[in-house]
Amino acid sequence: MSLFKQGRYSGYLRPISYIIDLIIINGIAVLYLLKGKDPIVFSVVISIGWILLSVYSQFYEVYRYTRPISILSLIVKQFILFLLVIFAFSGLYHELHLYPRPIVKYALLSFLPIIIFKFTIYYLLQKYRTSFGGNYRTTVILGVNKKTLALDNFFNKNPEYGYSHKKTFNLKNKMHSLEDCFQYVLEEGIDEIYCSISELSNSQIADIVDFADNNLKILKFIPDSKEIYSKKLRYEYYDYIPILTLRNIPLEDSVNTFIKRGFDILFSSFVIVFLLSWLTPIIAILIKIESKGTIFFKQSRNGFNYKEFDCYKFRSMMPNKDAHLYQATRGDQRVTKVGKFIRKTSIDELPQFFNVLFGDMSVVGPRPHMVSHTTMYAKKIDKFMVRHFVKPGITGLAQTSGFRGEVETDKDIIGRVKYDIFYIENWSILLDMKIIIQTFINAIKGDDKAY
């Protein structure tokens, strides 16, 4: 039975998934792509390639707590890499006469059933847990505070994740001892132990680790008040010395950087050709009719690695000497009538797609601040400079989460930094797509902080 308690849903699920996916990609290749040609060389190369890619992209690393958006991200990454492998094979092995268009169609035809199968298994397992009480992990929590109570509540209110929470132990004031906890875990056959670091001493943590190791129990830790353990720590060795990296940034991976830059070029080119090409003359005329001055407004901002660049907008204010020092505020007299409309609909930001095309910005990322504001916030707001680990964006997670526009209090900029850091540490192309769609919806509805 231990085979079914380790890893994920079942010890058999990963190999079954591998086999089914390999049958799909090879079967569709024989029926559609190869059409009577000898499939042996293609099948061997593609099967080995699929397995190696799956290990690299962690395509089968789907757990009971994995979110659907994360599964979609894995699928997109695997699809792109698989497509590149097939193109490379077709370029090296000319005997099969494989051409780009059929290759793309073959990849799409292969991934459709793979996607259906992957999500079917994911949701069937959730249904199995909620309806039949199967595939459960029993849990206990050591320590009582806000975070452990929140975890207790999560376990009890989300049965689809497959956790059956049995007990939370209060180790303060000698209400429970570690020996009581250990005895309970053994008697009840508990699968996973969750510990609050802030509630335990170093010696207690060492005792719990020893107990879990010696009794084959899964041990997990809940972050302490410093939240260092809430990071996606990367564990690696320098020779035989273990090293932990505090912040893992997906966009430092060359493949992810290539994907994001490719998307930025395609998306910005589309907007420039099909939208700005005809909208710019109209906006220019409206701006000129209402006030004298330039059509575009240029402002120095800090970008990737704190480097300054010129950020472009359609001018929405009367020309004034304070434009580079003060943000627009609610009811700001500097904003023109045309400016009020283009700010409300975010049209004023559209020239920044040229910044994206030139490489200074990305479509999605932390919004860049004026240089004077960056200097100010860097001194007073903790972790503010982390935002400069990636390129700034036209829109971002913070902007779609209620932290757009004027910074009225420190709470606004702290919230913005919090969402920006989450984005940096959890980037995916699907998260970018979600933010873009939400930005478009907000532009149509009108954002209360767009003034």
Word description of this protein:
- Helix content is 52%, strand content 12%.
- With 451 residues, the protein is α/β, with parallel strands linked by helices.
- Helix 1 crosses helix 2, helix 2 runs antiparallel to helix 3 and helix 8 (254-290) packs antiparallel against helix 10.
- It is flat, with a radius of gyration of 27 Å.
- The relative contact order is 0.07.
- Keywords: Membrane, Transferase, Transmembrane, Transmembrane helix.
- It is found in: Membrane.
Protein traits:
single chain, 451 residues, alpha/beta, Rossmann fold, 3 domains, four-stranded parallel beta sheet, two-stranded antiparallel sheet, 14 helices, flat, disordered N terminus
Quick structural summary:
The chain is α/β, with parallel strands linked by helices.
